[in-house]
Each structure stands twice: as structure tokens, then as C-alpha cells.
Amino acid sequence: MNFNEIIKDVLLTEAKEIEKAAANLSFDIDKAVDMIINSKGKLIITGVGKSGLVGSKIAATLASTGTSSFFLHPTEAMHGDLGMIGENDIVLGISYSGESEELVQILPHLKRFNIPLIAMAKNENSTLAKYSDIFINISVEKEACPLDTAPTSSTTLTMAMGDALAVCLMKKRDFKKEDFASFHPGGSLGKKLFVKVDDLLRKENLPIVSRETKLKDAIVVMSEGRLGNVIIIDNNKVIGLLSDGDLRRALMNESFSLDCNVEDIATLNPRTLKNKNLLASDALSIIEDYKIQLLVVTQENDELVGVLHIHDLIEAGIK
């Protein structure tokens, strides 16, 4: 049995059904988008079985892209949770057959409260479709299942339709990266757009020496500081930075001496950052562009504020 061929057949079958749906769009997407955009309530997704599972995913996608949404199981709705649906809400009901008993049972109650209904089903003559204000056809010619029975192509198409609706709403709202990050503050994008240099700055117990410090003493401070660098201060202002790279290069010089002043082999007027409110992701770009490990942060007058090490950025998940 060639499983690669089976996988290929499944993927192609489902892809073809999505292509057919894309070529034969028959519902008023503008009406659906405007209905949702103009609503003062939530978009509530409901369905049972595989349709319910797909509905949960669609609700999560909508909620994370600017459309207030949640999933409601129709059985729970019949046992008290109908109260979760407000007068300004919209319901998106999903049932491939359009006849799922649990879902059909709540439809008269939705109409009783004049709740707008968007339906996803295969048959526009189904009970779900007849109750709906907008009907979205999710019919497929062939399930990817070898028995042509298990929901496979149909659930893939349903999920894709949900994604398409979410994207239309994003476009309508001019939903941007910053908006997306607001709903994902703990994710990598949230960190990239919200974490600032000041949030990761080291400000205490920094390896600081004066310009007159002997190199041998500066090396001790460097070792104790565990940053691979020593910051040289004069009159409370940063004037130089001694890195382990500077030290290695000095060792190659025949006139090298541990008794020289630290500033003699240090990098004077090093690259510094004067904006502690800069996004950490932008600071990482500076570190990468200049191929340095430590970025010194100062006031406008060059007084030391703190340091940002590349390891701090990596540990914080800044990419």
C-alpha cells in the first residue's frame, strides 16, 4: 500500500473542492460582511459534531482578528445558554446537511428573538438554510474519505470559508499587525510589537571602570560582570567600551601590557542607543547590523542608563 499516493490523493481531492467553491461563489459576501461590521453585538458560531469543531476554530480565528466571537453548542443553548445570545448578536450556524437535530431545534427560538442568522450548509432548501438571512454553500462533490462519507473535504471547505470571512472582515476594518498583536500579547508578534528596550534593560551591578583604570583591573571587572564587556565612564558619561574582542586584538600587539590604561585598547565613542523606549526588536536589528553583543543605552547627554545584551533579547523571545 502506497501511503504517499493516498496522502497525495486526499490533498488534491480537498484542494479541488476548494477551487470549485472559489469558482462558484453564489452568496452575497458584501451583505454578510456589512451585517457583521454594523452589528453592535457578537458573532456567535454554533454547530454539532465535526461542524461544531470547525465552528470552534472559526470563532477563535474571528476573535483574534477583530471580530468579537465565541462558540456556543446548540445542545447547551437549549438548556439555558440561549441567554448568552443578545439582541444585537448574529448567529452563524454550521451543518453540512442543514438538518442537524440539535441545531434545528434552536432556530425557531432565534427567529423569535429576531436574531440574524448566517447559515453554512450544502443545501439551500435545508431547514437551516430556510431559516437563514444569508446562506453560504459549502457543498462538495466528493469527500476525501474512501467511503465518501466521513467529513473531510466538506470540513476543509467549511474551515476555509470561515477563514475567508475572517479575512474579509479584517480588510473591511483595515486590521493591522499592531491590532493582531493586541489580541496576542504573549505571542512572538506581541513581543515584537510591544516589548521595549527599557523592559529588558540591565541597570544594576554593571561592569563600570574609569578611563584611568589599569587593564589588569578592568579584566577582573569584566570577568565579574559576565557581560564580556567593560563600560568606561568619565564624568558620569560613557566614553568607551572594552570588549573581549578588543582584548584579544590587543594581545596580538608586541607592545601589549596589562599595566596600560583600559582606554588605550578600548573602543572609544562606542555605538550607543539614546532611546530606551525603542522596540526591543528594533534594538536587536541594531545589534545584528553592527555585529555586537552589547548595546549601551544612555541619556541624550551620554550618561549611562543601562545595557542590553543579545542574550537578554534571545531569552525574551525577541526575534
UniProtKB/TrEMBL annotation:
Keywords: CBS domain, Isomerase, Repeat. Residues 32-175 form the SIS domain. The keyword Transcription does not apply. Residues 201-258, 265-319 form the CBS domain. GO terms for molecular function: isomerase activity. It comes from the Bacteria. CDD domains: CBS_pair_SIS_assoc, SIS_Kpsf. The keyword Isomerase applies. InterPro entries: CBS_dom, CBS_dom_sf, GutQ/KpsF_isomerases, KdsD/KpsF-type, SIS_dom, SIS_dom_sf, SIS_Kpsf. Belongs to the SIS family. GutQ/KpsF subfamily. This is KpsF/GutQ family sugar-phosphate isomerase.
